[in-house]
User: Which sequence fits this backbone?
C-alpha cells in the first residue's frame, strides 16, 4: 500500500479551483519533487498533504501505518524566525512534541532522539548556539533535524533552499539524498530548481494551471509536458 | 537603605502593592516573551484600553472592578484573536479599532458618571493605593494560575511561538495555545492595570522580554532573564515612586526603559 495517495483531489480557495484532478501515490523510499510556476498550487497541495487544508473534492489517504502527525515538515522560514532567540537544542527538541501528548517536558528518549538527529546532520557542536546567529544553511539543517524528530518515515519540504547560497544548497541536497538512500526516508519536496529536481528525485509532479504531470523522472524528461514547459533542454 | 525598607514595609498598602506587583510583573514578563516573538506586542496595549473601558463601566454600575473587567477583557482577547485570524481586518487594525473604541466608551462613562477627576487619572496612569485586600487575594490566586498554566504548557507554547505551521502539522493544536496565551494576557493586564495604569501596563509585557533578548541565547534564558528584569525593574521603580510620589506605572516603565537601553548598549559594544 502507498504511503500517501491522492485520489481525484482538488483544492479551492473561496470557490476558485487552484488544483484539480490530482491522482498520485507515493511509496516508501521514493523521492518526489513538486514543481510548477507560482500560483499553480504547490503550497496548497503541501498544506493538504499535511492535513492543514481539506481538499474540496477527492481524498488523501495515508497508508503503511503513517499517522497524520508523523509527517516531518520543513516549512519556508518566516521573518520572525530568522532572529528568534532559541538555542539549536531547544528548536530540535521541539520536533519531539508529537510523541508527548499532553505530558509536560521531554523524556530521556526524546532528548536522545534529538541528539542523534543533530549528529546525523552534523550540527552537534551547534547545540548550545543561538538559532539567529547561524548561517542560512545551518538554520535549514536545524529545521531538518527538528522534522526528523517528528518522523522517521516521511519528510515534506517547502522550497528548503530558497535564499541559500549555491554551496549550502548543494550541501542540503546532498543531505536529503543521503537520508533518502541510506535511511529509507521518503521525501516530498517543493522546488523551483528544476535541474536539481530531475537529478535527485525519483518522481516528478509538475503542476500547471490547466493540467499536471506525475511520473518517474525519466518519463518526465521524455514527456511532452517537459518539452512544452522547458523547451526540451533541461539537462 | 534599611530605614527606607522598614518604612516601605510599615504601610499595608505598600506591602499589598509589592505582592501583587511582583506577581503580575512575572506573569506579564513570561507571556511577553511569546507575544513579542509572535509580533503580538500590541495585544497587551489593546486589551488594557478595553480594561479601562470595563473599569469605567464597573465604576458607573458601582460593582467590584475585577468582577466586570476580567470577563470583559477575556472576551475581548478571544474576539481580537478570532477577528485577526479570520477576517479581512488584520491584526493591528483590529486592535486599533477595539482599543480606541473602548477608550472612548470608558472616557464617556467616567465623565457622565463623575466628571474628569482623580479616578480617571488613576485608571490611566495607575495608583499605588488601588489594591484592596480582596483584590490581593484574587490577584495572587489568578497569577498563580497564569504561571502554573504557562509552566505546564511551556514546551507547547515554545513550539507554537517558534513555528505555528510546523506545530499544527505535527498535531499540536496551535489555535488552542494562541487562545490560551491571549486569555492569560487578558487576565494579567486586568490584574496589573489599576496599579500600573491602563496606558502603561503593556510596557510590562514588552520591556522585560526585549531587554532579556539583548543578552541571552536561548528561549529558556530569555524567559528567566525576562522574569529577573521584571522583578528588578518593579522593585526599583516602586521604590522611586514611593520616595518621589510619582505614579507607580510611570516610574517602573522608566526604570525598565533604562535597563533596556543599558543592555542594548552593552550588546552593541560587545558586537562591535
Assistant:
Amino acid at each position: 500500500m502507498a504511503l500517501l495517495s491522492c485520489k481525484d483531489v482538488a483544492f479551492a480557495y473561496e470557490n476558485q479551483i487552484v488544483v484539480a484532478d490530482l491522482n498520485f501515490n507515493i511509496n516508501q523510499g521514493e523521492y518526489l519533487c513538486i514543481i510548477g510556476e507560482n500560483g499553480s498550487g504547490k503550497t496548497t497541495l503541501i498544506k493538504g498533504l499535511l492535513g492543514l487544508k481539506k481538499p474540496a473534492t477527492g481524498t488523501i489517504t495515508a497508508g503503511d501505518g503513517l499517522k497524520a502527525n508523523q509527517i516531518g515538515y520543513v516549512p519556508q522560514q518566516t521573518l520572525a524566525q530568522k532572529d528568534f532567540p532559541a538555542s539549536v537544542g531547544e528548536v530540535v527538541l521541539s520536533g519531539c512534541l508529537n510523541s508527548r501528548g499532553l505530558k509536560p517536558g521531554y523524556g530521556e528518549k526524546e532528548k536522545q532522539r534529538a541528539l542523534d538527529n543533530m549528529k546525523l546532520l552534523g550540527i552537534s557542536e551547534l547545540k548550545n548556539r543561538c538559532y539567529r546567529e547561524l548561517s542560512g544553511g545551518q538554520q535549514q539543517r536545524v529545521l531538518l533535524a527538528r522534522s526528523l524528530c517528528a518522523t522517521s518515515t516521511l519528510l515534506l519540504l517547502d522550497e528548503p533552499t530558497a535564499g541559500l547560497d549555491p554551496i549550502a544548497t548543494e550541501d542540503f541536497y546532498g543531505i536529503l539524498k543521503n537520508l533518502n538512500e541510506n535511511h529509507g526516508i521518503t521525501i516530498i519536496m517543493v522546488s523551483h530548481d528544476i535541474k536539481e529536481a530531475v537529478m535527485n528525485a525519483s518522481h516528478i509532479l509538475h503542476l500547471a494551471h490547466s493540467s499536471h504531470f506525475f511520473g518517474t523522472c525519466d518519463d518526465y524528461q521524455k514527456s511532452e509536458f517537459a518539452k512544452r514547459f522547458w523547451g526540451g533542454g533541461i539537462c | 537603605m534599611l530605614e527606607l525598607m522598614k518604612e516601605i514595609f510599615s504601610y499595608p498598602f505598600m506591602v499589598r502593592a509589592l505582592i501583587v506587583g511582583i506577581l503580575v510583573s512575572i506573569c506579564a514578563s513570561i507571556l511577553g516573551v511569546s507575544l513579542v516573538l509572535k509580533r503580538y506586542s500590541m495585544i497587551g496595549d489593546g486589551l488594557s484600553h478595553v480594561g479601562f473601558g470595563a473599569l469605567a463601566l464597573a465604576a458607573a454600575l458601582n460593582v467590584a472592578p475585577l468582577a466586570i473587567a476580567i470577563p470583559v477583557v477575556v472576551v475581548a482577547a478571544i474576539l481580537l484573536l478570532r477577528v485577526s485570524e479570520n477576517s479581512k481586518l488584520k491584526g493591528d487594525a483590529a486592535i486599533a479599532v477595539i482599543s480606541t473604541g473602548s477608550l472612548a466608551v470608558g472616557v464617556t462613562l467616567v465623565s457622565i458618571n463623575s466628571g474628569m477627576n482623580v479616578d480617571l487619572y488613576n485608571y490611566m496612569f495607575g495608583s499605588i493605593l488601588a489594591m484592596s485586600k480582596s483584590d490581593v487575594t484574587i490577584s495572587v490566586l489568578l497569577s498563580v494560575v497564569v504561571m502554573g498554566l504557562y509552566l505546564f504548557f511551556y514546551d507547547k507554547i515554545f513550539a507554537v511561538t517558534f513555528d505555528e505551521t510546523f506545530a499544527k502539522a505535527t498535531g499540536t493544536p496551535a489555535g488552542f495555545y494562541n487562545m490560551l496565551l491571549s486569555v492569560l494576557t487578558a487576565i494579567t493586564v486586568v490584574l496589573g492595570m489599576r496599579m500600573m495604569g491602563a496606558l502603561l501596563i503593556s510596557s510590562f509585557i514588552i520591556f522585560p522580554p526585549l531587554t532579556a533578548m539583548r543578552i541571552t541565547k536561548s528561549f529558556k534564558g530569555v524567559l528567566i532573564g525576562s522574569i529577573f528584569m521584571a522583578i528588578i525593574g518593579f522593585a526599583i521603580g516602586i521604590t522611586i515612586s514611593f520616595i518621589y510620589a510619582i505614579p507607580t506605572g510611570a516610574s517602573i516603565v522608566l526604570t525598565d526603559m533604562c535597563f533596556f537601553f543599558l543592555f542594548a548598549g552593552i550588546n552593541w559594544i560587545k558586537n562591535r
Notes: Residues 49 and 100 of chain B are 7 Å apart (CA to CA).
